[in-house]
Amino acid sequence: MLGYMWFEISEREYTHLSITGRYRRFFDVFCSIFYLLLWISGIKEPRSFASDGDLAYIVGHFKDLPLREGVAECLQLLRDAGFTVWGFTAGDTEQVRGYFLNNGIDMPLQNFISCDDAGVGKPALNGYKPLLERLGSDEKWFAAAHMWDASSAMKAGYKGA
To answer: Which keywords label this protein (predicted)?
Structure first.
């Protein structure tokens, strides 16, 4: 529950900062609310309960999380059909790329782009534009785990899945 709440609140704070012109990297927002989340969870002295070293250990091991079942097969089907697969993330490209690499999926670094590059977070439409422009005039499809992400990408000019 804590992990889910941590991500949800971090995404909200990240988004609100971005849409009000105060963009911050998701990783920085995520780390900055760790102790607040512990306090909200009922831990009266969060900094006595956990240290900055504990936080670094936790976030350092996110790349070890397994991907959803079927991701490798899905990406291979797309590649076999001639699609070039890109990763567009609100997170750090090295961190997110690590999810794939640690699960045996090759994802070239040059095929990643982060909201950090433009300083505009999802779901702001301007956040989707740099990759859209980078991909040129070919047909561009956008698939995401979140409907808000896919629908924003479609509004920005992608076809959606």
So the answer is: Hydrolase
List, in sequence order, the alpha helices (H) in 34-145. Answer: 34-40, 46-49, 52-60, 71-80, 93-101, 115-118, 125-134
Class of domain 71-160: alpha beta
Q: How far is CA 61 from CA 57, 96, 151, in A?
A: 6, 12, 30
Token duo for residue 31: 């780390």
State residue 76's pLDDT score: 96
CATH 3.40.50.1000 domain locations along the chain: 71-160
**Vertex 99 angle, CA 98 and 101, to 5°:** 60
User: Both tokens of residue 37?
Assistant: 């989340």
Amino acid present at 15: T
| Burial class of residue 91 in the structure, from the number of CB atoms within 10 Å of its CB (0-12 exposed, 13-18 middle, 19+ buried) | buried
